[in-house]
Write a structure and sequence with these properties.
2 strands, mainly alpha, 13 helices, globular, single chain
C-alpha cells in the first residue's frame, strides 16, 4: 500500500510539470525541452535555500521565479531571434545544466534537518498521509488558479494564439509576448514541481531532470486520450484530467516495478509506455481505413 501511496504522491508532485507541458504543447503548440532544465533548477534553488535556512515562502517564490525566467528566455530566443522553438528549448536546457551546478555548488544536495512544506503544515501524524493531504490541497488551489486564468480574456488570448496565431495577431494581440508569457508560466509550474519533489524525496540531484519532459508528455497524452474519448470541452475538466494523467502515469511505473522489472530499465519502460500511448490513436485510425 505504501508503495502505491508513494507513486500517488509523486504523481501529485509532477502535476506542475503536466500542467506546464499542457500549456506549452497543447495551448501554444510549442515542444518545450526547457522543462528538463527548469525542473532541476527549481529543485536546486529549493535545496540551496532550505539548507541556508530560508523560509518556505521565500524558497517557493525563488523557485517559481527561476523557472519563469528560464521559460521566458526560451520564449525570447524563439520569438525575437526567430530560432526554432525546439532548438531554443534545447539551448536553454543545455545552458541550465551549468547554471544548476553553479547554483548548487555540487551535484547532489541532501536535505537533512531542513524545513519542509509537508511538516510545516500538519493535519495528521502519519507523514505520508499528511503529505498527501497537503499536496491535494496545494494542487487543487493551483488547478483552480490556472483554470481561472485560462477563462479570463488574457487566457482566451493565450489559447487563441495557439489555435490561430494569424487571426489573433490581426485583432491586435502581441503573439510574441503571449508566447514568452506562456513559456514563462509553463516553466514556473515545472520549477514548482521541483520544489515539491525535492522536499518529498529529501534531496536534489543535478541529473534528476534528465528525461523528465517524457513524464509530463506522457501525462498530457493520457489526459488528451481521455478528453477525446469523453469529448470534454470544459477547461476545468481538461485540467483535472491532466492531473489524473500524471497520477496514472506514476501508477503504471509503480506497477512496473512491483512486477519485478529492473529499476535500471525504468527510463526505457517510460519511453516505451509513452510510445504506446502516442501510437494507439494512430493505429486505430489506420485500422479504420484498412
Amino acid at each position: 500500500m505504501d508503495f502505491y501511496l508513494t507513486a500517488l504522491l509523486q504523481g501529485l508532485c509532477f502535476s506542475g510539470i503536466a500542467l506546464g507541458i499542457y500549456i506549452s504543447m497543447k495551448i501554444f503548440n510549442i515542444p518545450d525541452i526547457t522543462t528538463d532544465g527548469s525542473y532541476t533548477l527549481g529543485s536546486m534553488v529549493t535545496a540551496v535555500m532550505l539548507t541556508h535556512q530560508q523560509s518556505l515562502y521565500t524558497t517557493l517564490i525563488a523557485s517559481v521565479v527561476a523557472g519563469a525566467v528560464a521559460g521566458a528566455l526560451t520564449g525570447v530566443i524563439h520569438t525575437k531571434l526567430k530560432i526554432n522553438a525546439l532548438l531554443s528549448g534545447i539551448l536553454v536546457m543545455t545552458a541550465l545544466y551549468s547554471v544548476n551546478l553553479v547554483v548548487a555548488g555540487r551535484s547532489n544536495i541532501p536535505l537533512i534537518g531542513t524545513a519542509s512544506l509537508y511538516s510545516a503544515i500538519t493535519f495528521v501524524t502519519d507523514l505520508n498521509l499528511n503529505t498527501l493531504i497537503v499536496l491535494l490541497g496545494v494542487v487543487a488551489v493551483l488547478t483552480a488558479l490556472i483554470g481561472y486564468l485560462l477563462k479570463t480574456d488574457f487566457g482566451i488570448a493565450m489559447r487563441a494564439t495557439g489555435n490561430s496565431e494569424t487571426m489573433i495577431r490581426a485583432l491586435g494581440v502581441n503573439t510574441d509576448r503571449m508566447k514568452i508569457i506562456g513559456l514563462a508560466l509553463a516553466n514556473a509550474l515545472t520549477a514548482l514541481s521541483g520544489f515539491f519533489i525535492t522536499q518529498q524525496q529529501g534531496y536534489a540531484d543535478i541529473s534528476m531532470g534528465i528525461g523528465i519532459v517524457i513524464t509530463g508528455l506522457g501525462s498530457v497524452i493520457i489526459a488528451e486520450s481521455l478528453i477525446n474519448w469523453l469529448q470534454i470541452t470544459s477547461v476545468w475538466t481538461s485540467l483535472m484530467l491532466v492531473l489524473l494523467g500524471a497520477i496514472i502515469f506514476q501508477m503504471v511505473l509503480a506497477l512496473t516495478l512491483a512486477l519485478g522489472v529492473d529499476a535500471n530499465m525504468l527510463k526505457a519502460v517510460t519511453a516505451i509506455f509513452v510510445l504506446i500511448i502516442v501510437s494507439l490513436p494512430r493505429l486505430k485510425l489506420l485500422n479504420r481505413y484498412d
